[in-house]
Amino acid sequence: MKIFPQYDLSALNTLSLPGRAEYFCRFNTTSDLLCLLREADERQLKVKVLGGGSNLILQPQVSGLVIQSAMDGVVKLSEDESSVTYCVDAGLNWHQWVLRSIELGAYGLENLALIPGSVGASPVQNIGAYGVEVGQAIVAVRGVQLSTQQWMSFSQQQCSFSYRDSVFKQQFNNDFLITQVVFKLAKVFEPQVSYAPLNKMAEQALVNKLDINAQRVTDWVIGVRNSKLPNPAETPNAGSFFTNPIITKSQADELLKLFPDLPVYPLVDSLGARVKIAAGWLIDQCGWKGRSLGLAKMHDQQALVLTLKPGACQQDLVSIQQAVQADVMAKFGIQLRPEPQPFR
Asked: Which of 13, 55, 164, 286 places its Cα 20 to 30 Å from the Cα of 116?
């Protein structure tokens, strides 16, 4: 295990932004992690946790010790007639875990295929897609609080999962290193195809008398994502750049009078008082879909995705982010908030 000074992080963030860590180390065991935490404490270095680099805005200089898990084990903890529980190391690539779960006959994550990032990052923002959120399948999150070096385990309820949010983005923001995530998955596959494109594919499969199994739904999800979202390896991006705004139902009703086509979705946990608005639609209506500003561009197929061109820097991203936010605020009175957070 070696600690590298002034380590180049440009290849470790999906936006390909230039930046260096004051110190960087990748750990392969819990013992290595404990040594790193002790080393950082002795040298009075603040520890920064880097996952798959898909939900951050890398700054030119990152102070302290940046650590990244290379642990990728999968262990079955228990099973009963209907479900099976697995403990998965945080360093495993998220998409690889989705594919592995299907091979293991453990179902429920199919709609989350191809989401970039690591298993450890998935609970932080409660990743979700096509009607499924990862928090629905998580029964425990394990790790260490950085400020106290205390090992902790959070139950699903203690994680406080909500739309793109969790306790790890709130009370424990930048102060918790997730080492393992425990998933309880179904042994019998039940397709979740309420999302329109998936529903259409499912209807066609039934017409063609095809079995709607987990691998087929996963393939559909991968196809839909590839048709709408650029590959970070080819076009630097962080996926959906803005979260879908959550506003009051009364505010939405007023907007619907002016914009009848505004996509509005109810929130399960809000008792009808709040609703979710499609950020991509707002951005598209402001003329930003496929539009560039400097070396940054909102994607041609999905206005919600901010992409960067070769040579782009942090200021290119900030400029287009602020321009989009200003136009949406001026037209709809809604403040867009970015999903990726500064990593400094």
From this structure: 286
Architecture of the structural domain at 4-69? 2-Layer Sandwich (3.30)
Task: Determine whether 79 is an active site residue.
Answer: no
* CATH dotted code for 74-186: 3.30.465.10
CB 25 within 8 A of CB 67: yes
Residue 1: what pLDDT? 81
Name the pTM for this structure: 0.91
Residue 201 CB neighbour total at 10 angstroms: 21
CA distance 311 to 48: 25
Helix (H, G, I), strand (E, B) or coil at 137: coil
What are the pLDDT digits (tens) for 246-255? Answer: 999 999 999 9
216 is catalytic: no
Q: Where are the domains of the chain?
A: 4-69, 74-186, 196-228, 237-343
Q: Which residue is catalytic, options 16, 133, 164, 166?
A: 164
